[in-house]
């Protein structure tokens, strides 16, 4: 990756993903990867997708219903997305979620 990539993590309120973001960003920084990771409540994801360059969207498992709501925007903007595995989400495994982001960005 030569230019900075951006990954957005969303969940219902943005609180759990806010905690997870720190772990993912730390894992990216430790590897020297130029990835900016941030979180937001699912309700503003549509706005973020429309107004920002997002290279990967990671969705909290409890917000999987958001995929149907956001699918048209994600397809139009060609934003790859994935549901965060429940296991990684529950233990706030930043390294594992970073691997999922890298796999998405690499597509």
UniProtKB/TrEMBL annotation:
GO terms for molecular function: kinase activity; protein-N(PI)-phosphohistidine-sugar phosphotransferase activity. One of its GO terms (biological process) is phosphoenolpyruvate-dependent sugar phosphotransferase system. It comes from the Bacteria. Pfam families: PTS_IIB. Keywords: Kinase, Phosphoprotein, Phosphotransferase system, Sugar transport, Transferase, Transport. InterPro entries: PTS_EIIB-like_sf, PTS_EIIB_2/3, PTS_EIIB_3, PTS_sugar-specific_EIIB. The modification Phosphocysteine is found at residue 11. Residues 4-107 form the PTS EIIB type-3 domain. The keyword Transport applies. PANTHER family: PTS SYSTEM N,N'-DIACETYLCHITOBIOSE-SPECIFIC EIIB COMPONENT. This is PTS system cellobiose-specific IIB component. It comes from Trichococcus patagoniensis. The lineage of its organism: Bacteria, Bacillati, Bacillota, Bacilli, Lactobacillales.
